[in-house]
Amino acid sequence: MKRTTVRRVGAVALALSSLMGVGATAAQADAQRLASSCLSSFCLYEHDDYAGAEQEFLFTSNNTCANVTSLNNKASSMRNPSAGRIQFYDSANCSGSYGYAAAPGSSDSDLTNNGFDNRTSSVKRVSP
C-alpha cells in the first residue's frame, strides 16, 4: 500500500514538473515575441499579436514610400514607435488613396479592426 502511494505521488510530481516546463517555455516565447527589435522604425508582422515574420522599414524622411515585400498582403499587426504617421495602401508604390494611418508611437496587435488585415502592399511615412 505504501509503495502504491509513493508511486502515485512521484507520478503526480513528474507530471506537474513537466507542465511547469511547458509553461515556462510558452512564457519565454511570449516574452520574445513582445520584445520586438522594432524600437525606432516601423514594423509589420505576419500574424496578430506581433507574431510570425517581421518586416522593418527605416524611413529617413517624411513623404517616403516603401513597398511591402515579404509580407505583401500578409500583414496582420504593426508597431510604429517612430515620430511619423504611417499610411497604409493596398496597392504598390503608395498609389491611390490610403486606407489606414498609424499614429506616431502607436501599435495595433490586430489589423482586422480597421479593415486592413492582409491588405497592405505599401506604406508611406508622413508628417504627424
UniProtKB/TrEMBL annotation:
The keyword Signal applies. This is Peptidase inhibitor family I36 protein. It comes from the Bacteria. The keyword Signal applies. Keywords: Signal. InterPro entries: G_crystallin-like. Residues 1-26 form the signal peptide. It holds the Pfam family Inhibitor_I36. Gene3D superfamilies: Crystallins (2.60.20.10). Residues 104-128 are annotated as: Disordered. It comes from Nonomuraea salmonea. Residues 106-128 have a biased composition (Polar residues).
